[in-house]
Design brief:
This protein is α/β, with parallel strands linked by helices. It has one domain: Alpha-Beta Barrel (TIM Barrel), CATH 3.20.20.190. It is built from 14 helices and nine strands. An eight-stranded parallel beta barrel has the order 1-2-4-5-6-7-8-9. The longest helix is centred in the first third of the chain and has 20 residues. The N and C termini lie far apart (82 Å). The relative contact order is 0.12.
């Protein structure tokens, strides 16, 4: 006959189980941080510039990100009908009131009207390179609608070389054909394989040995993707093959619980570079330590993050809460 268990012990055991369950729901177990040097921080990339304050991909947004100390600024490159390179994320020009795509419009049409989000106009890539001549920040060129034509690839490389910018850019594309063209045109350039846009929109979360071999032949240095596509296996694959990995953590980029939680997870997984819409949050508000390592951040409840996400109230940095400068 088994010994009876006292009601008090049953109550204690039940409370302990509930406490453990509650703890796991609020703070799910995270993988251990990789071995890093003391004071290590990831490299931060400003996604489309400082888009908290200025329209994305504009000269003002890019220079504001530089002013806040961003070492890299990600921008989107497209070519107009008359062969001019401009910075614009979407194919459509609806944000300047044109019923055309970028590739269907001339530069004069593209720049005829200001963007709906402000007074700035869509800049050319040349205008941005000239504006950045006096600083040391680098440009992360997301080559939209890859694969590029040989003419597009040639124009992009020629412009970077003419402005002595090849050492300050990386070319991001999900097309191996585009990367191969760029490597032939610019043997010294930094090439990045875009896992999110890879091969015409297929979104792999794995780096196969075959793909890795192709990337090594092209001397690719890095791969990039969205934070919600990153896991421990992907990071190990990328690092095993000698590449670095960057991930977009901002909420506008996908179905994240929160940018704060995603950033913490990217650090825990060993992601090398973090791309964000809110660059000042990392470079100004948290200048001395990664957000993920701050005790207060670690105590944030998962329930609160879920509530914030459901209400669509993603927290902004202190700079973004101030009236915009015009």
């Amino acid at each position: 006959m088994s010994p009876s268990v006292s009601p008090r012990f049953q109550l204690f055991l039940g409370a302990a189980c509930l406490a453990v369950l509650f703890r796991l729901l609020l703070f799910p177990l995270m993988p251990a941080l990789p071995a890093r040097a003391a004071g290590w921080r990831p490299t931060f990339i400003a996604h489309r510039g400082y888009s908290d304050r200025f329209p994305e991909n504009t000269t003002a947004s890019i220079l504001e990100a530089v002013a806040h100390g961003a070492p890299w600024i990600e921008v989107d490159v497209r070519m107009t009908r008359d062969g001019r390179l401009v910075l614009h994320h979407d194919a459509s020009l609806a944000d300047v009131g044109l019923p055309l795509d970028v590739e269907q419009a001339t530069l004069a049409q593209v720049q005829a009207r200001p963007l709906a989000a402000g007074r700035e106009r869509i800049p050319t890539m040349d205008q941005v390179l000239r504006a950045m001549a006096g600083n040391r920040a680098k440009l992360y060129l997301h080559l939209k609608d890859s694969p590029l034509t040989p003419d597009e690839a040639g124009r992009i490389v020629a412009l970077c070389r003419a402005r002595r910018f090849l050492g300050r850019v990386r070319f991001n594309s999900g097309s191996l054909a585009t990367l191969a063209m760029l490597r032939r045109l610019a043997p010294e350039a930094w090439l990045e394989y875009d896992l999110y846009d890879a091969e015409g929109g297929f979104w792999p979360t794995r780096l196969t040995d075959a793909d890795a071999a192709a990337l090594k032949r092209l001397a690719v240095r890095s791969v990039g993707t969205f934070g919600f596509k990153v896991d421990r296996t992907l990071v190990r694959q990328v690092h095993r093959h000698g590449f670095i990995i960057d991930a977009l953590v901002s909420a506008d980029g996908g179905p994240f619980l929160s940018e704060r939680a995603t950033y913490r997870e990217m650090l825990a997984l060993g992601v090398d570079e973090v791309m964000t819409d809110h660059i000042a949050r990392y470079l100004i508000e948290y200048p001395h330590a990664p957000l993920a390592l701050r005790p207060r951040a670690l105590r944030r409840s998962r329930a609160r993050l879920l509530l914030v996400a459901r209400l669509g109230r993603q927290p902004l940095d202190a700079q973004a809460r101030r009236p915009q400068r015009r």
